[in-house]
Design a protein that fits this description.
Largest sheet: 8 strands, antiparallel
Number of helices: 11
Number of strands: 19
Strand content: 15-25%
Strand order of the largest sheet: 1-2-6-7-12-17-18-19
Order of helices and strands: HHEEHHEHHHEEHEEEEEEEEEEEEHHEEH
Distance between the termini: 27 Å
Shape: globular
Length: 362
């Protein structure tokens, strides 16, 4: 909040009282005493504390704004706790850390029941739920196909993968091979799990829970573009979030007002390559084993948790605009789509997303 505006808000009523009191007929000594008392009261009035915290995590960065922070919270301790929480998420779910919990499961033989943490079990359970609800469009075992098409750690292939190679991998992948029994996870085929399409959202939720446990009710947490908000911003208004235009990095509308929700966006417009004049997007449809070919450029989802928003944004981006809107209406998902046209982009929204637009006078 602007410092001048805040000062006037904090002390305005006190100065009004001062004017009325001094204008009365009290003697000079009493007036001096009263003025000193008002100064003390003004100096003791609580001020809102707003912090901006950031740091590296999950191959990207986090940015957090908290406001009206309780006096019992120490900034250095809070920053350290956030870093530790996100490091824990990495240790549980990264495929780049050889001894992470997830890699321990990936390296386990078929049929072995691996005990996992409550957090990892929760993310796997949520992933399986989105897998079922999306008809297989969201699949955390799709990694081998992503790698085959050159969108993983390996370089782009010199030629397009052969149909036989694609079909061979399709016989192996599939979240239906994952069995979760409480905190024991096993597989019926030699699948490898990659949680990159949901782990950032889960990390956002973990940080949000950490903030709330410390009495911080007003915050915006962002990790790699995935968000969660609560309460109000430093100006006392509902948080405003903008949706980016893929082609130019511009906001396509006045920022929508969102609080108490998770927000995630998925799109295929930044990562692709061309072979023989054809464009291959990094979004791989697990059901076909091939890059998507529809004209859906990006999907933004608003949900109760950022993990759910993150997972569904990926699933809907795989499905394409028509199928995505059909699923969104069936399951009452708040969804905003940007669809490529011959002249630019077209906006499409689900019914559950409309209240966020109506708040902006649209």
């Amino acid at each position: 909040m602007n410092g001048i505006a805040y000062a006037s808000t904090k002390t305005g009523p006190l100065y009004s009282a001062l004017f009325l009191f001094v204008a009365s007929g009290f003697n000079r000594v009493l007036r001096v005493i009263f003025i000193l008392a008002l100064v003390v009261l003004a100096s003791c009035a609580p001020e809102k504390t707003t912090w901006k915290l950031s740091g590296p995590t999950m191959g990207t960065a986090y940015h957090i704004t908290v406001t009206d922070v309780p006096r019992t919270v120490i900034r250095a301790e809070l920053q350290s706790a956030i870093d530790a929480e996100l490091a824990a998420v990495n240790q549980e779910m990264s495929t780049y850390i050889p001894d992470s919990e997830l890699m321990r499961f990936n390296d386990a033989p078929v049929g072995a029941a691996v005990e996992v943490s409550a957090h990892l079990a929760d993310v796997i359970a949520r992933s399986l739920d989105i897998y079922r609800r999306s008809g297989g469009a969201f699949d955390v075992t799709v990694g081998p196909l992503v790698n085959l098409w050159g969108f993983g750690p390996l370089p782009e292939p010199e030629k397009i993968p052969a149909d036989s190679d694609i079909e061979a991998l399709k016989q192996v992948i599939g979240s239906d091979a994952l069995l979760l029994d409480g905190r024991h996870l096993s597989k019926t085929r030699p699948v490898k799990v990659d949680l990159s399409a949901i782990a950032k959202g889960h990390g956002v939720d973990r940080v949000a829970d950490l903030l709330e446990a410390r009495g911080i009710a007003n915050y915006l947490v962002e990790v790699g573009g995935e968000l969660r908000t609560a309460g109000v911003n430093p100006r006392g208004a509902v948080w405003r979030v903008g949706i980016e235009r893929p082609s130019a990095g511009q906001v396509v509308q006045e920022p929508i007002q969102v609080t108490g929700k998770g927000i995630a966006t998925s799109g295929d417009y930044r990562n692709y390559y061309e072979r023989d004049g054809k464009r291959y997007a990094h979004t791989i449809d697990p059901r076909t084993g091939r890059p998507v070919e529809h004209r859906l450029a990006s999907v933004t989802v608003i949900a109760d948790t950022c993990a759910e928003a993150d997972g569904f944004a990926t699933a809907l981006n795989v499905m394409g605009a028509e199928a995505a809107l059909t699923l969104a209406e069936e399951q009452q998902l708040a969804v905003f789509l940007l669809v490529k046209t011959d002249t630019g982009f077209e906006e499409r929204t689900s019914s559950a997303f409309q209240p966020y637009l109506e708040g902006q006078g649209r």
